[in-house]
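for the recovery benchmark. tokens below, seq after
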């Protein structure tokens, strides 16, 4: 029997702000999703002459601990040449630590807006879902 999308996936709004220096999203808790993936969608709209750099997925065993970068989960820097582009990174959960975040460095005084959304799929108790659906975050 197929489960509904609400039990086999978990979307979460992680971050949206205008950071002028380093920033970190809220933590995405991967508990009960150890058979799947954490997919991150990051978009940035930058001010004139600004850049958003160092965008990456980080991990930690506790939600408030010290996070380290996940190898291979680094986003392209955003500058005037790719302003407004969205990027997606997907990380297999099984070898990762429990909590994941998106971190980076904002665009300084030029008002760069950064948004990050995370979606967990592959809950430990889920079976495949063949329905078409929209998930609200």
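predicted aa per position
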């Amino acid at each position: 029997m197929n489960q509904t999308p609400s039990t086999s996936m978990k979307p979460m709004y992680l971050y949206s702000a205008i950071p002028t220096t380093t920033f970190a999203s809220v933590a995405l808790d991967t508990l009960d999703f150890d058979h799947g993936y954490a997919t991150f969608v990051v978009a940035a709209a930058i001010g004139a002459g600004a850049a958003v750099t160092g965008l990456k997925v980080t991990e930690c065993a506790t939600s408030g601990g010290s996070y380290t970068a996940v190898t291979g989960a680094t986003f392209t820097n955003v500058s005037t040449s790719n302003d407004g582009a969205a990027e997606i990174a997907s990380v297999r959960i099984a070898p990762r630590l429990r909590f994941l975040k998106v971190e980076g460095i904002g665009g300084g005084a030029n008002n760069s807006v950064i948004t990050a959304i995370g979606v967990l799929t592959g809950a430990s108790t889920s079976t495949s879902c063949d329905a078409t659906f929209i998930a609200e975050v």
